[in-house]
Batch of 3 targets.
Target 1
Amino acid sequence: MLNTDLHLANAFCNYFATITNSFKFIKLQNCHNYVKNFFQSNPRLNIFTKNKNIGFNLPDFNVDEVIKGLKALTSNSGKGESGIESSILIEAAEALGKPITQLFNLILKSGIYPDEWKCAHITPIFKGGKKSDLGNYRPISILSPISKLFESLISAKIMDYLESNFMLHEAQFAYRKKTSTEHAVLTMTEEWRKKLDLGLDVIALFLDLSKAFDTVDHEILLEKLAYYNFHQKFILLIKSYLQNRSIKVKINDSLSESFPINVGVPQGSVLGPLLFIIYFNDFNFLQTKSMNFLYADDTTMSCFGHHIDLITKEIENDLILVEEWLENNRLLINWKKTQAMHFSSSPRSKNIALNIDFNINIKHHKFISFKKKSIKFVKTFKLLGIIIDNRLNFEDQVISICKKVNSLTCLLTKGSYLFTNKIKPTLFKLFIMNRFEYCGSAWLHSVNEQCLDRLEKCFAKSILRFLKVNIFSLTGKDEFIFLSKFNIIPLKYRLFFHFCTFLFNLFKNNNIFTTKDNNYKKNQCITRNIYSEKHFKTNYGKYSFLTISTKLLNSFISKHLEKENLFSFKKYLRDGYKLVDLFNDSVRFWTE
């Protein structure tokens, strides 16, 4: 009798293993020549290669760090190929610490990565579209917990090496300490706002790369590790880590045959994403006029200027360099998904993104042309889970949030009979509240009163449907007191809390946003305001994060920066009705 699950698992496995086979790449030797010349001729990259005082090689692991790593494993993660559950490793961490440390150090000494750890079990997750199309499924990889532990210990040391020697470009926000998608979106949109406030137009180009993680060439990656002064012994270990990898797909209880993977960095791993940003790092050292913002392979190029045709010409020239770099690193642009957006500083320009093509006349074109390819201009674009619009008012983001919250509330309400009243507030905060907060500091300051009102009504409606309590008639402290019984903070105060703690953390972590371009400049003379408030010309500047956050710093946050940590600052905000009072004192910053 035919096992349909097994047949389907094999079909998926074959598809995922061969998905990049149809891609056409230039000759590998040409790539090596390009990479070598690029590193040797670029003065900023050449510094790393020539500096013989730095280099990376892994010292032996000690028992304490391995035990700490074992205890930090996620208890519900999959078993992977080894069949050992992470809960066993966690419970027996003290007993297993010494033998696992010896095993890890043996791997370092031999330079051989165990083949069993290289096999990923994949679960296909449906993304949307036709269910019969294998391309509409996302592969979720599960590796052995013990291999992920080894990778996490290595990754931490690699990242310390890269960061301490300033090797990673500041444009890359992914997989780094003290950065997040929120930092990426905020830094990018604030740069646009600065330029718009100065009267410049902005064009953003959202590059989409085809299967970027899956097309990383192993030989080129190993070559780049050498340029960043990784020692040969460690490079051989990484070579072993990348070789002989395989995948199996699991459908219900059926596990497919093993299919080899000969290219790319392993997704679902800890080390794979870090290797990717090392591979992609020198992209940021291209001599382009565009300003780049990256989160892993999500790449946004931004150009600014007074004349739209000149901005476009700059982008077209930059694209020549970008495409050359990508081709010689065996990465490909997906032109169908690559889109552009135009932000106009002109108050009379109503929908700037619709009528642009820059080779002849702004009023008669809708595309950027590049080598017989057309890049569409769009009014909205979803980047890192945030819908960006060409007016930077985030109205579409608010609409999207409300739709998601309504859908999730409906789903939870249907199954509410399964949960006790005690657990329901926790579920609400876990599944609903975080939808409102995601990257809130990147868009909260930009939305108008109508959008905020829409969010609050959506919040109240969700509370009513799932928790069966009506807060529509409550305001201010009454709402705060009432919801405190459920350990829930009303939405407007919660968003304010998130904004303040995010800002506090920016300064505590000395984030690049706080130090770049004198964003926050202290007053030299004695004044009630510690930080100099920026002068703005337009609403782009008036309702920027920089403007609002400077006012909040001067209002009360700066007083807590020197003497408190994030935990104590959060405690201060949550003390009694402090959050309500601070919000009422600060709400004028958004509305005045």
Target 2
Amino acid sequence: MKAVRKRGDCLVPILLVGLGVLFGALPAASAPIRLRTIVDEAGLKATPEIGAKSLVKLPLGTLVEALDQKGEWYKVTATIEGNQVSGYIHEMLVEPAEGGGDLGRDEAGGAPSYLAAQIDLKIGEAKEFIRNGQNLVEALQTLDGLLARVFRLEDLKLQRQLAVDIYFWLGLARVTHGDEAGGLRELKKMFEVDADRARVAGRNITQPNVAALLKQAEQEFLGVVVDYTLEVNSQPAEAEVTANGTEKGLTPSTFRSRSPKFIIEIKKPGYKTVRDEVYMASGFERKEYALEVISRSLKLVSHPAGAAVQVNGRDTGQKTDCVLEGLALGAYQIRLVKDNYADWQSPLTVEEGQGPLALETFLAGMVYLPQAAWTAEPEGLFLRPVSIAAGPGGEVFVADESPFKLRKFDAGGKWLKDWTPDQQVLSEFKNPGGLAVDSTGHIYATDIRRNIVLKIDPAGRAVARFGKEGSGPDDFKVPADVAVDSQGNVYVVDWGNSRIKKYSSAGQMIKTWGGKGETDGLFNLPRAVAVGVRNEVFVLDKSRVQRFSADGTFMGSWGRAGAGPGEFREPRGLFVDRAGSVYVADSDNHRLQKFDDKGDFLVHWGGRGREPGKMGFPCDLLVDGQGRLLVVERDNNRIQLFAVPSQ
């Protein structure tokens, strides 16, 4: 009996003869049987499994030769573009090339083999998406839609086979998509359809999370209630541990769950956080975690270099400049030790972060030896020098009472005679007081007789002047000294009015503070001013040093009248170096004194005389870029240089 079925717009005659009835099990020695594909893109598989890889897609009507039959699969050969290809094809995708019998119909009146083939093709497409981790939502929708069609197949054996395949790949897709609970539901349904086929489908799974879910799905299908117990230990112990988002106390810790999956997080200050996903294959497991110390490196730089490095009182064996590796999180005391310099110490807290830490410091010299003096030739190079300042290029300016008034020297003490102030400067500059040079090379010079401040450009031309004699807001009564901060602001010591006046670089008044008195913030005939590395303002008056913020807020003071350490007699000069050390020219004691920025005494040296190392009324000083100390000696008419001896 013949029948016809509709494929698209074509009516194709077929013989409704069951292939199994026609062939049975083909004997190995029988002659090849000719078959014809009854769907387009029929998959020729590498192995006789629905989920196996397709070697080639065969067009509708392709003739193949069946060599053997294994259950529902035929081992066949096909000729494709002149090449023979061998593989396996499902019995539902082919029919005899000649004759046929009654195969039955699906619910739509078509051949069940055609419906199954179309389902298999769609399953194959979804599998490719899932294997590649792409279009997972589309794959899930495709597989979900195929289930209804599968369960309408009349062949119950094929129905179960395809359903197991769909549920298996639905489970994998949901796990890949991050929905492990949904994946477990799909895998459990797979066992409910056909437990034996489900076990076969999952036997080659190597991913621990999927393997654990397969085991759990089977146990839930069998009605076996399993508690999973996980013990977590850490080295060191007493680390905070959470499991599946719930705090579980300190390690060692044990916890239970109906699920084989545990998301573990272990935290301990000073150690890297551990995050782990555990999929248990048995009812009890123990996990050991060695916590990794969080450490940072520390780059240490000192000026000068060569200082021994101690950490928490222990000698590291390293010297600056160096890098200390592997400092764990926590608090430290860093100490640098170098002969002829004060020990430097700083607390350091190592916290979690990116990149190395860094410390840079300038060491404070404690031993100073005379190196040279600018005075010998020609005789009378200076006439009662009173002030000194360094320019941004290392050049040195000295003011004295000679006809030159203001001279420029190189760092070696050579008088640069091609630089001279213009006539306007010389005519206005009668009795020099203080000197300062800003970062642009502009010179600020005070005249204590004419009560003015001159601003001189790098070429020696006067470009501005401000002030006049008096006690008003714009007046001076003996402007004894001047200093410039890193922002270009100018500070002037108004000696006779016992105050400090702050100006912009253009000479505009910003602030005035002080007044006559002995208490904090007041002055008793202030003599000198200097600005520190943090723009703190230090003011020297008759017998003490006071420290202020840049806006004039009092921050501290030290000193008193006398000849002992930390005591002064008519001090005139003040300087703050890059380390924050404060130098005082203790003029009537004919010596220099050095303090830290808090006023703690460090060292003094000098004494009255002309021989090297002695002094005659030191009245100003500076530390140059080489770390040398240049001291203006009014009574000895010279600049004497001191330096810390090298080791």
Target 3
Amino acid sequence: MTTRHNKGRAAPGQTGAGTPEKARVRWAIGGSGVGGFLLLAGVMLFAPAAIQPAFAQSGDDLPPPGDFYDDENWWDHFDDFEDFCDHMNGDYNGCDTGEPPEGEPPEDEKGPTDDPEEEEEAEAPFAGYVETPRINREMGFTQMGTLHERVGERQTWAWDDCGERCSQYREMTENGNRPHPFWGRLRGNWLEEQGKDRFGHKTRGLLLQLGTDLFVTGDGDGDHNHTGVMFSYSHGSHRFYDKDYNGDRVGRGHTDMFSLGGYSTWYRGNGTYVDLVGNLSWLRNRYKHDGRDNKKQHGYGLGLSVEVGRPWQLGDSNWLIEPQAQLLYQYIHLSSFDDNINHVHGQSGDGLRGRVGARLAWNDGNDMLRTNTFYGVANIYHDFTGSRSVAKLDGDKYKAHYRSTWAEVGIGGQFPLSQAAYFYGDVRYERSLSSTTEIQRSSSTGREGYSAQVGLKYSW
């Protein structure tokens, strides 16, 4: 059986129980209820008036279909030419020769399909299969984050205890009592994207991330390096939209992403830093589309990030400005699967994302010889690759294209809870810099999102 997906044809109305779309499917398969009653009533009222003039004629003098039907698409009243001849009772000679009246449509434009299952397949949405690879890559980027999102301000190692923290760590390690500073953060976000063509989505995400420094090296000049591992768990709840279905929600999805990663960050005494991150992920996606079986899909991912920054003090004040740049790479592979309609091929795709920005920060000491930090941040992100998402269903390929450039602003801070612990957190807002097609929103904003996080780190 050939599966059709209504290419180039807008779907009729909202999906879901009791909607016009599913009512049409029920009529096609001879269903019951109000829809069936209305269809039967229409046939009883209008079919006799339409057919009667035809039976009054005979032979080749039969008028063309446009003369005795309300429209020229006479075939809409019959399943096929044979059904038409049954209705004509032999009063049209073309039934004997196999020649239909003028206006016989192409094979794929005839009325209701002979196969009710095919008619239902033609209306089943599949937006989530196209959009989820994009969402999965986004989750991987979020897990790597930026240096200050992950661990807050770490230059305090060069400031606290009058700049003696690195020396203290080195002495403890030499005495066989190496400490393992650890940190953790909890992040929530909401993100909405509209593609350039027909697909859009909303997603709510939650990230729990825990990490520990396995090794810290430093010297008396304030240089220090932190190398460690981190575990991340992300959960995403998604809503999928399709312009061909009037921009209505056509499905839902959920993603669980488990990752194990490592990082190594070098700091100079003047605050210059280089941060490297690697992340390996395992994914599980769950889909729920109207008219399709609920399905699970598994996959894996690989993420890499390199970030650099350098703070500059503003005069003799406590303020500093810190330009930053970052390059991130995320690869995702998802397995193939079958629902009750299509075979969804395995999906592999990657994204290369760049960021340039700056952080304006205020730092000041306190009575515990620790540092209070408050900051504002502004970034520009750009996807060099990965702004397109693709799914292949049987032999058909579907794509979604998203905005590739957006801006982000945020505020945050860090303050000590004790001599051994710091609390940190921030809130951020992002929005695309160009407009796109209106799909599920009343505006043409291609990307918009919010996030908030809190973190805690402990040394000794």
